[in-house]
Amino acid sequence: MRLTENARDLFLPAACASCRSAPAAGSGLCADCTADLLALRPLLAAPAVRTAPPVVAGGPYAGALAEALNEYKERSRRELAPALGAVLARALAVAAAEVPDAVLVPIPPTRAARRARGFDHVATACAGHGDLHRVLRARPRPDSVGLAPRQRAAAAAASLHAVPRRLAALAATGRPVILVDDIVTTGATLDAAARVLRGAGVRVPAAVTVAAA
Ligand SMILES: [Zn+2]
Predict the structure, then answer these.
(1) How remote is the CA of residue 187 from the centroid of ligand 1, in Å?
(2) 20 C-alpha vs ligand 1 centroid, how far in Å?
(3) For the chain, is the Cβ count within 10 Å smaller at the N or the C terminus?
(4) Cα separation, 150 vs 68, whole angstroms
């Protein structure tokens, strides 16, 4: 099946990642879906985990944005990075106005996810949109489906750790951090990341995501 799909991708012009019908431009999206993404306005997400930093999302996880994000993550359609990065950048503009001189810390993929995808999808989407500091690493993570919120929070907390030397260097600058992730659901991952950074004395007043579920 996968072979057939790969062969099809080789010989036909790529279909739009969102609507899958119209042929895509080099951006991976057709003109209509590109317009849908451009029409999105950033929103303030309200994650269930109250201790998570406030989150500005590029748009709701629905429609063209959800489809494009899924194709980007699950089918490694890296050509979508600029379009999704533009959505992220609008959320970032809102957050950065409240947090001057902030650096960006992306939520890292697990090693397995990165290998499967072939690239770090969050860091790639925010490339060029700020001062990126990769101070976090992800441990292998058990599937969180079916976990209660408390178990999910514990799994998220255990899954992230700092690169000590990089975190110390970041803390020494005194600059605040805006966390970056692809999607916010409960906020457990962002909360866990913020705790790691705050443990080193780094302020984390905000987070941005491409989409809010
Ligand atoms: Zn389309």
Answers:
(1) 30
(2) 6
(3) N
(4) 30
DSSP code for 45: E
Beta bridge pairs of residue 180: 106, 208
55 vs 43: CA distance, rounded Å:
8
- What's the gap in Å between 31 CA and the centre of ligand 1? 7
Instruction: Look up the CATH number of the domain holding residue 139.
Output: 3.40.50
Q: Which residues have CB under 8 Å from 39's CB, separation 6+? A: none
Q: 50 exposed, middle or buried (CB, 10 Å; 0-12, 13-18, 19+)?
A: exposed
pLDDT in tens, 78-99: 999 999 999 999 999 999 999 9
**Structural domains counted in the chain:** 1
| pLDDT, greater one: 69 or 146 | 69
Ligand 1 centroid vs 15 CA: distance in angstroms?
8
Is residue 21 situated within a structural domain?
no
Question: Which residue carries 């999704």 as its tokens?
Answer: 84
73 assigned to some structural domain: yes
CA torsion angle for 62, 68, 74, 79 (degrees, to 10)?
Answer: -160
Residue 196 carries which side chain, given as an amino acid letter?
V
Distance 89 CA to ligand 1 centre (A): 21
Q: Six-digit token pair at 146? A: 């079916």
- Mean pLDDT within 56-60: 98
Ligand 1 centroid distance, CA of 68 (Å): 9
